[in-house]
Amino acid sequence: MFIDVNLLPKKEPKNMVFLVGIIIVFVATIAAGTVFYLSVQKANRQIESLTQELKQMRALEAAEQQKLENVQSVQEVQELKKTVEWAKQYPLKTVLLLRGLAKLLPERGFFMNFSYTEDGTVNITVQFDTSEDAAYYLKRLEDANFVADVQLKSVTATGGQSGQTNATEKNNILPRYVAQYELHVNKDALKEEKGKQS
Which DSSP helix (H) or strand (E) runs through 176? Predict the structure, then answer.
C-alpha cells in the first residue's frame, strides 16, 4: 500500500471577502479621484472662460470710455468755439460805454449804480447836486449818438426833507438828487466813436 505523507503546511483558503473589499475600495478611490479631477478641470475651464469674458468686458468698457471721452472733448471744443464766437460778437464793451456816459456827466454828477443787459438796455443811477443837473444830463444823453433811446425813470431828493428845510439851510446841508435813467445803446455808433478815439 502506498501512503501519501505531505509535510508541507496546508494553504489556508484566501479570504475572498477581504480581497473583494480591497478591490471595491480601490475602484471607489479611483472613481472619486476621477470625479474630483474632472470637477477641478471643469471649474478651471469655467474660471478661464469667465476670465476671458471679464477681459473682453474690460476692453469694451475701455473702448466705450474712450469714445465717451472723445465725445466729451468734441463737445467741449464745440462749446469753447461757441464761447469764442460769442465773445467776438459780444454786443458791447462796457468800459467804452461807461467812458461815454461819464463824459456826458455834469461836473458834480456821480454814478451810484450801473447795470447792462445783452440786449443793449442800460440802467444807471446818478447823484446830482441839483434837479437841473438831472435834466441837463437827460438832454445830453438824448443828444448822444450812441444812445438810441433814453427815459428818466425817477428823480428823488435825499439828505433833506420838506419839514427840515430851515434846519438844513442853517447847517448848510443841501439835499442831493438821485436820478434813475433807462437807455438803449446804439452799438454801431458806440463802436464808431471808439474808432474815432483810437
Answer: strand 176-185
Whether the full predicted model's pTM is greater than 0.85, yes or no, is no
- Where is the domain boundary, 73, 90, 107? 90
Q: Which of 97, 178, 108, 176 is nearest to 141 (CA)?
A: 97
In-domain check, residue 168: no
Cα separation of 186 and 145, whole Å?
A: 7
Confidence class for position 52, pLDDT limits 50, 70, 90: very high
- Do 186 and 139 have their domain in common? yes
Q: How far apart are CA 133 and CA 147, in angstroms?
A: 18
3-state secondary structure (DSSP) of residue 126? strand
Give 164's pLDDT tier (boundaries 50, 70, 90). very low
Q: Which helix (H) or strand (E) holds 193?
A: helix 187-197
Domain that holds residue 71: 15-90
Cα–Cα distance measured from residue 148 to residue 87, given in angstroms and rounded to the nearest whole number: 23
Q: What is the pLDDT of residues 126-156, one digit of tens each?
A: 999 988 999 999 999 999 888 889 999 999 9
Angle, CA of 28, 32 and 38, to the nearest 5°? 145
* Domain assignment of residue 96, yes or no: yes
Beta-carbon count within 10 A of 109 CB: 18
156 CB-near residues (< 8 Å, 6+ apart): 177, 178
